[in-house]
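Supplementary Methods, section 5.1.

A reviewer requested that the exact input to the structure prediction be made available. We therefore reproduce it here, unchanged from the version used in the analyses.
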Amino acid sequence: MKQALSGLTPEQINKQCLLDKKFIGKQIFSWIQKPVLDFDKMTNISSVLREKLEKKHKILSSRILGHQEDEYGTQKILIELEDKHRIETVLLNDGKDRQTICLSTQAGCAMKCRFCRTGEMGFKRNLTHYEIIEQYLLMAEKFGNISNVVFMGMGEPLLNLPEVRKAVKILHHLDGQNISLRKMTLSTCGIVKGIKEMTQEGPHIRLALSLFSVDQAVRKQFMPCTKKNPLEDLKEALVEYQAVMKREVTLEITMIKSINDSAQAARAILSWIKPLRVNINLIPLNPGPDSELKAPSPESVNSFKSILQGAGFSVSQRFQKGDSISAACGQLASFT
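The structure derived from this sequence is encoded token-by-token as follows.
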């Protein structure tokens, strides 16, 4: 079976392809990361070597099976992996020529958060770092420059941290995308061990936490991971992260009608936050097709937001881009 080169550094390409001149590995790496995903188009490499590469190697291991676009320019692609598992990847456009890619790190997810359709798939397997990278390359080839990366797609990134770490290394590489670590964010449902490992060993990128509620019983009901990752331990890990990284943490709060959208819930969050430095992202529920859960009213979201802003916190609201193509937060799933 041919080895995909998508997730290799220039040094690894040299070794894998048995190249005798180091600069050629750098050239191939730079072409792939442009992305140019056809050996024949790598014009500064000899035709003899291009033919050899084509025979013995391949650039990608995965392929696009489907594509959808909504009225806001949100793009979603369905990707088939080499073993026929399928994942979804989303590209968001903010209308200011900035594109952000939402990368999946697992096929399926074991976390089973009640407000997320990916959990309904069950856990299939972790993605390799080159499968993570290939999502970026496929989107960039199709839609142009991508400046920001969020590991917020299908799966729990902290349960696949070694491969995420390798993917960050490639995306940050000076001879490739050279994306700043400050423009990459990892979103977690709250794996305490993973946050501590990330703090100590990297990747040293931004951190976002799906908080949902600071009521332990409510959070446990909707986010089963809470049982092994209680709020007290989670907060301790976040304090440690901030002490080392000197960065704010983003708290993501998926809001569900009559569950966690009250003024009381907002004030409880204010009490729990201390002494963390945070910005807060409110995400009104994007219900699945058969969900019994409902999105909160605009009035309750505004009231919730006002309470948090009144305490001096930066609060944003994530609008439902991608909702019409099931590409919004919590809607990614591939059941085929």
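The first helix runs from residue 10 to 16. These observations are discussed further in the main text.
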